[in-house]
Amino acid sequence: MALKRKNSKMRSITRARTSQNRKIVSNKQAPIDPHREEDEEDGFSLKTSAHSNNHGVQPLGNLYLSPTSHNSRDAGLGNLHVLTDELVIEILGFLDGSHLGVLATVSKSFYIFCSHEPLWRTLALEKLNGGFLYTRSWRTTYIAAHYPGFAVSRIGLSGLAIRDFYSDFLFQSWLCASLEMKSDWLKRDNIPRRRGISVEEFVLNFEEPNKPVLLEGCLMKWVAMKKWDRDYLVATCGDIKFSVGPVEMKIEDYFRYSDQAREERPLYLFDPKFAKKVPILGLEYDVPVYFRDDLFYVLGDERPDYRWIIIGPAGSGSSFHVDPNSTSAWNAVIKGSKKWVLFPPDVIPPGVHPSPDGVEVACPVSIIEWFMNFYAATKDWKKKPIECICKAGEVIFVPHGWWHLVINLEESIAITQNYVSRRNLLNVLDFLKKPNASELVSGTKDRVNLHDKFQKAIEASFPGIIEGQLMRKVTEKKAQQPRLSFWESVTDTNAGAFKFSF
Questions:
Q1: Same-domain pairing of 200 and 165
Q2: Where is this region: Disordered (predicted)?
Q3: Nearest one of 118, 143, 108 to 128, comparing CA atoms
């Protein structure tokens, strides 16, 4: 229960922070029909299934243009109407499914709040622990799992439509789950693209200066490029379960979910142990030649998680983050396509609020919400983000420390790996020995001792490499320092003592 309280509170804090800068759709000058297929002014398009689970909720701005000025939200909540929508949802998050069902019969307002899909998603993931088959919605999935004899098909997917119900919070959640990516969000493509460059060129032009690059033609020999589709993965993986958010699911069950789910933050299949669970998958791809200098291998089985298979539907992805342990990464798309937005280490993306110690990052609840409310601001920035669409057969290099957001534009399958090269060795060692390493280091059970283990293993396998890297770093710093003119050197070294005679 304590964990649930903490997570629920963090979700509320996160959304509250972003709401200060939010451009709610309700700011328009005419009432918005939440079922309209397209908002022509902003060019927003809704998904074909967008009508489900809205229950007639409208943005709050529409209330001020309504002839009745009546919000059934307040009347149905009684004395609780003084609470914010976020707080109402947080309180309801303490209830189990049966209590939510009973409370939904109290009033139309409670019916809408108790039908909020994220509430049922949390219940299903926490209580069912992956032992479910997704059926139409999280609410019907939860009911079907707890009451197998109940005909969930009798539950209308769209539910009751309530008139004169206004809520920015609930409408925003539905809108983010329903919007297609705008074409304007996909236009910018300013990443360097290279094909067939040498390893030396990659190191000189991208790895050493710590700059992203999109590499083409690297996956042509991968068996995965020819074989990895739904049918092959389902047949090959069988009953083996993979990490999907906080639960584990069979790939077949995950595809069943991804075909039906229409939510603000679709679950992502993101498994770091896939090659151990299904060894053949680990043999059907090769690390591109540019990324084979990976010093973390010296730790053997004690190295932190470093490679993942990633599968997700359109709209799934990862919100802004920096890769773990100060490592660099590469991400190869096998099927589908991904939109990438990257900011350099010294530029915090708009709407993102990292804590001073770097342990927590508050950002918009969903990726679509970030695009809706913050993406346009980056057009006027001097340091514009690096952006691209990475398609099947392409690989993106993500340098250490770079903030990045990724969203799948269609159902996608990818492989990604984090690695430590010689050029990044000192950064990783410095990160692993930070005072709060026990909170910052990830992907391993022994966070505190990882630095010492790694340093000893490096020194044993590559004697002198750390000292060599330190000397190289000092030399580079000296080379980067501007040379003083004669007059500047005189002033600095002999201030007050040097006299001229004419």
A1: no
A2: 1-55
A3: 143
